[in-house]
Amino acid sequence: MRVAFAGPRAGRNHSRFIAALVAMATVIGLAGVVGGAGQADARIGGTSVGREQFYVNGCGMPAVKVRAWKRPGNYKTVILLDGMRAQYDYSGWEINTNVQEMVRSGVNVVEPIGGPASFYTDWDAPSNFNSQPYRYMWNCVITRSLVSALDARGYRVGASRKYAIAGLSMGGNASLVIAAQNRHNFDRAASLSGYDFLSAPGMHTALRLAMFDVDPKPWNIDAMWGPPWGIRWFQNDPMLNINRMHGMKVFIGSGNGLFGKYNALPNVFDDLFKGSTLELLAFTQAKAFEAAAFVQGLPVMTYYAAGTHAWGYWQDMLWNAKNRGFFR
C-alpha cells in the first residue's frame, strides 16, 4: 500500500524474525533540534495539509531525520515507530501504507526515521558484533529531542495537550513502554504485532536470533539491555509496566498467523515461513498482555484478525484504532 502524496517508493520494509523462531512461538510469553533543518511541501494537493522534513538531536547518535504531516485544527498527533528492518531514507509507514492520510481527518502524523534493530531504546553500549560506531539512544531522541522539536513546531494539540505513540513489531512494545514511562508527554499508545511480554521465557534468545539477521548484521542483543536476567529487560517489558498505564488509552492489535487478504504471490513462501510464525508469537504475547491488563483493571482496545506479520495488516489496525476513537 502506498500514500498518494508520498514521493518515495523504496522497497518494502519487512520487520520480521527469521524462521528459526518457530520454536519460540509458544512463548506467552538530549534535547533540542539540530540547527538549519529544512521544511518542504508546505501545501499538498491544494489543501492546507503540510508535510515537512527536519532533523533532531541524536543524543550522541547522528542527527535523526523526521518526516511529518500536519493540518491546522487537527485534534491529535501520533508518533509512528517502525519495525526491525527500519531504513534510513523513509519510514516503512510512508513507504508501505496510507496512514499519512489520517492528517486529512484529524490526526497529525510524525515518523522518525532509522534505527534498525534498535527497539527504540537507549542501549547499554554499541553493538560490538557489527562494529557499531555509537550506541543507540532512541529513547532519548523520542522523549526529549523529538518532543521538543514537535512542541516548537506546533504539534502538541488537542484537549489533553499530549501525544499518541504507536508502532509495529519492535516499535509496538517500545511505544507502550515509552508512553507508560513518560506520562507527562503521552496519553495513549498502540502496539501492533508487538512483543508485549519481553521477559517471558525464551524471548531473549528469540530476539537474539532475529537481530542476527538485520543489516548491518549481526547485532549483539547483550549490548542493548544486558543478559536476560539484567534489570533493564524487566524495566522495558510492557507487561511489567501495566501498573503505569492506568489512565492511558491502550490499543493492542495482532494477526493470528493465518493467511489473509494481504498474503499473495510472489510472497507466499516468505509469509509462510517467517510472517506466520512471527505473527503467531506476537498473537500469543498480545493475548497474555490483554489478560494481565484485565486482571490489573486496565481497559485495552484490541483488534485481532486473520493475517501475518505484514504491512497491510498494520495499516488496517491503525485505521481501525482511529475509526473507533482511539485518538480522540
From TrEMBL:
Lineage of producing organism: Bacteria, Bacillati, Actinomycetota, Actinomycetes, Mycobacteriales
Protein name: Putative mycolyltransferase
Record's keyword terms, sorted: Transferase
PANTHER family (alphabetical): DIACYLGLYCEROL ACYLTRANSFERASE_MYCOLYLTRANSFERASE AG85A (PTHR48098:SF1), ENTEROCHELIN ESTERASE-RELATED (PTHR48098)
Gene Ontology molecular function, alphabetical: acyltransferase activity, transferring groups other than amino-acyl groups
The keyword DNA damage appears for this protein: no
SUPFAM superfamilies: alpha/beta-Hydrolases
Classification via Pfam families: Esterase
